[in-house]
Amino acid sequence: MDSSASFDKDRHVFYLEMMLDALPWQYQDQEINRVTLAYFAVSGLDILGALDRVDKDRVAQWVLSLQACPSHKSDLRDGEFYGFHGSRSSQFPQDDNGSVRRNGSHLASTYCALAILKIIGYDLMRIDRETLLISLRNLQQPDGSFMPIHIGAEKDLRFLYCAAAICFMLDDWSGIDREKAKEYICNCQSYDGGFGLVPGSESHGGASYCAVAALQLMGFIEDDIVSKLPSSSVIDVPMLLEWCLQKQAVDGGFQGRCNKASDTCYAFWVGGILKILGAHNFYDKEALRRFLLTCQSQYGGFSKYPEEWPDLYHSYYGVTAFSLLEELGLKPLHVELGISDFLANGV
After folding, report:
1. How many helices (H) and strands (E) does the chain have?
2. What is the pLDDT of residues 298-317, one digit of tens each?
3. Distance from C-alpha of 339 to C-alpha of 322, rounded to nearest angstrom
4. Nearest to 140 by CA among 93, 102, 87, 185
5. Where is each Prenyltransferase alpha-alpha toroid domain found (predicted)?
6. Which residues does residue 248 pair with via DSSP β-bridges, in sequence order?
7. What is the reported pTM?
8. How far apart are CA 280 and CA 194, in angstroms?
């Protein structure tokens, strides 16, 4: 892991291809999130220009097999969410009457499933969009937030973002009350300009990305809004911009919160916010690049911190960070969706 090294595209392709083929035993406790792990591998290979390494038909068949479906259309009023399961282990068989014994579909898994299908070029009009979108509204709470499953779960900006991304990819906003969602997001902006996961909580890089990306997807903030100031906005953009820029540490990396160590993934979470706002030239890109290269593994992939072993999550966000830095040979990002820019690439 040499800070003077260059971005090693070929090794990253090898690492992600290996992860897509067979996960090491250390990921056993993440089995329930297999769709999310597949999203990291497939999307990463796509950004690296190596989507040809993916068996698209096999992947599409597997992802589609994980969609939860009600026994009857009338069941859409039962309060459950009929999205995608995170893995086969959460997909229980039907009983003798054809009813689902337990619906374990999850909002984040559904976002990842649709993102994978979008990346490999599957026509999302072919899935049961009506069932998904009607039942998606079951997850939105009176305050505008979303739960990831239909009962007994937390509610915060992560799942609101997933709902917005799902509706955007399906080009149908019937699954979300956008005004209520906007109100909830605005209530999550803190005194320092960043966003917490819930109103009143500490500002966080990931939560702030979810807030800004969701607002952008829903059409509530303009492209490159910083260049249009002092135009009115639903959020305090100058304070948010200052908070983001303060997150670049002396080592060049980005922190997720104040007084935390720099972490590879926040190069995307915070860097992505700056890109959406139109402020991507306001931070020290060369310093960030040097930090990321200290997290690049000689085996391919990226680690969370310098001089540690790589993992799939940080490897993906390391690749997306280099795309934001406009590394040669990488596809540009549709930053709000967290995948390659399918419009720029003619998909």
Report:
1. 12, 2
2. 999 999 999 899 999 999 99
3. 13
4. 185
5. 7-338
6. 254
7. 0.93
8. 17
